[in-house]
Amino acid sequence: PALAGPRRGALIVFEGIDRCGKSTQCSLLLESLQKQGVPAELWRFPDRTTLIGGLINEYLQKKASLNDAAVHMLFVANRHEKRDEMLRLLAGGTTLVLDRYSYSGVAYTAAKGVPHLGPDFCRSVESGLPAADLVVYLDLDPELSAARGGFGGERYEKLEFQKKVRSQYGALADGRWLRLDASQPAELLQAQVAAAVQRVVEQAAAGEQLGQLWD
Ligand code: NYM
Ligand code: MG
Known about the structure:
Order of helices and strands: EHEHHHEHHEHHEH
Shape: globular
Number of helices: 9
Number of strands: 5
Bound molecules: 3'-deoxy-3'-aminothymidine monophosphate, magnesium ion
Strand order of the largest sheet: 2-3-1-4-5
CATH topology: Rossmann fold
Structural class: alpha/beta
Domain Thymidylate kinase-like: 14-192
CATH class: Alpha Beta
Strand content: 5-15%
Helix content: 40-55%
Pathway: Pyrimidine metabolism; dTTP biosynthesis
CATH superfamily: P-loop containing nucleotide triphosphate hydrolases
Distance between the termini: 20 Å
GO molecular function: ATP binding; dTMP kinase activity; nucleoside diphosphate kinase activity
Protein name: Thymidylate kinase
Number of domains: 1
EC number: 2.7.4.9
CATH architecture: 3-Layer(aba) Sandwich
């Protein structure tokens, strides 16, 4: 148990294929945490506002091409460059809600099927980053996500690729993930998320140690 210092915040991560409803759920959760007086911030990865994030943005918008390994390392670097700030906020008692994180890194790159960029390699380069206290996985059939107003024009937003990403998430998910059927209405999802988040916020505050990737 922590003897001194503030109660730490929890690291909550939302994952899922494109257009599964992550951003909506992240905002609803942030609002509800703030209403309860829980100090919280919402971040998203990639963080397109940094120098590295700018390169990632150009790649995703198809203004730049990069090979699969190079862009993978940029996504990874984009998390590592935010590591110290994440740890500082968590230690100071702020709960962080992340719209995508390392789990996206593994699922999207592994979905490319490049032999030297498989799941084991992808996990290895995440070492040293904090592990999520809770991964909320919004599971959705890509046929349904594609029908939701269609994909934008970004790289990866193609039905066939999204199916591969979903199957990578399936392989990555462990029993500790909260897997939710994302075809449910937003309010129903929100209630299930809130209950699980409340538990992990309490556990974190009670001194449960922050894990490390990849564990
Ligand atoms: N993405 C996101 C990756 O390929 N690797 C990563 O490490 C991360 C964090 O970026 N299609 C992909 C998934 C998305 C895209 O994310 C941009 P968003 O949440 O659609 O803005
Ligand atoms: Mg997207």
